[in-house]
Amino acid sequence: MPRIVRPLLVLCLLLASCTSWERRQEFEGWTLYVQSGEPVEVDLYRAGVQPAFEAVEALLGPFEREVRVHALHSGVDMQSGNRGVLTGDGAAAEEIEGIGPARVPAYHLRGDGGPFSPSGVFMTTTDTGTAVHEFVHAYFAERGERLPLWFEEGFAMLLGDGALRDGRWQPDGLSAWPWRKLREEPLSDEDLARLLAVRAGDDHSARDNVLVHFLGWTVVFDLYREYGTLDWQHLLEHFRQAPDPVAEARRRMEHTLADATPLEWLARLQDPSPAVRLAAARGTWKLHSAEVHALLVQAIFTEEDPEVRASLAVNALATASQTRLRRRQEGRMWRAVLPVLRDTQLPDPDESSALRTLYRAYRSGSRNYDAQGALARLHRFWEE
Length: 384
Ligand SMILES: [Zn+2]
Known about the structure:
The structure is a single chain. By secondary structure, this protein is of the alpha/beta class. It folds into three domains: about 5-145, no CATH class; about 175-260, no CATH class; about 265-380. The chain has 16 helices and twelve strands. The chain has helices at about 40-60, 130-140, 150-160, 175-185, 190-195, 205-225, 230-240, 245-255, 260-265, 275-280, 290-300, 305-320, 325-345, 350-365, 370-375, 380, and strands at about 5-10, 15, 20-25, 30-35, 65-70, 75-80, 85, 95, 100-110, 120-125, 160-165, 170. The strands form three sheets. Strands 1, 3, 4, 5, 8, 9 and 10 form a seven-stranded mixed β-sheet that branches. A three-stranded mixed β-sheet has the order 2-7-6, with no helix packed on it. Strand 11 (about 160-165) and strand 12 (about 170) form a beta hairpin. Helix 6 (about 205-225) packs across helix 8 (about 245-255), helix 11 packs across helix 13 (about 325-345) and helix 14 (about 350-365) packs antiparallel against helix 15 (about 370-375). The longest helix is centred in the middle third of the chain and has 22 residues, at about 205-225. The two termini are about 15 Å apart. The structure holds zinc ion. Zinc ion binds near residues 9, 10, 11 and 153.
């Protein structure tokens, strides 16, 4: 599998930048801005961002003012948890201690809207999940909500995890990267107390910013699992009723990080809605779990939807590249996966051809086929 850099999402970078922005295109409820003189592929932004805007309005309520979306060509170099500078390279990743390489694909600014303090969403990507995450921040900013940072980031991660199907964003909520990372490097009570107290405007390290996202997600995901609602006020209220926030965060985090949690969550692979099944399958390879792999392979044998089949197959292959599997399990995987790669017709012919390339590459074991390139063309099925 290609080396994957997990996008890192940051609430409130204070950027020293004199970029000037020009209005490029108005959509319903949001407007696309570009850096003066830079080209932008408006249709890509429409395809990626519009479903995110619609999803956040449907889940949280309508925006009252136009949301500004800025197409960024430069990358962001984080200097601390909430400070960064724009750099030339949009693909640059930086190493964060104990976390690994991370990249800032997008951020939201609560500026005053003046020429050197623009407010809104800034994106180096047109990925819908990333846009959902940032619109959640935009929504809270418009309402003047000052929520605990862990909650806002956790809630944004919850809604930003999912899949795009037929132009609609289907949230899922199980974010695989923090699940695995926090199991590998558990947080102490001291960490919890510190992270729960971080506010958006406080000075904090890039590492703590990442951990605030991770911790926030584990807690909000557990609240969501327990109460079955995406009503954020309801979820936050329940958390606040607990007498000891550190103990409550620990209890909920451990619940989310349990072995059984993703296995129970993946009952969604049997949901009647193919959008729900697709959103459940996408990104599961990041759990690096042989048990999850068995569930994915099992699901392929009964799955009929082409996009869900492709997603199950690619995530099973990616899991196999990261996890030690028993011979029998691997044999079963090939019996399930090879027919998917060989026969599945996807709506996009380029994606179908990428499946065929993978089929030939795995079938022949030859390096003459560009398996990495094929996986990149199938990114919407596994990247999360
Ligand atoms: Zn965020």
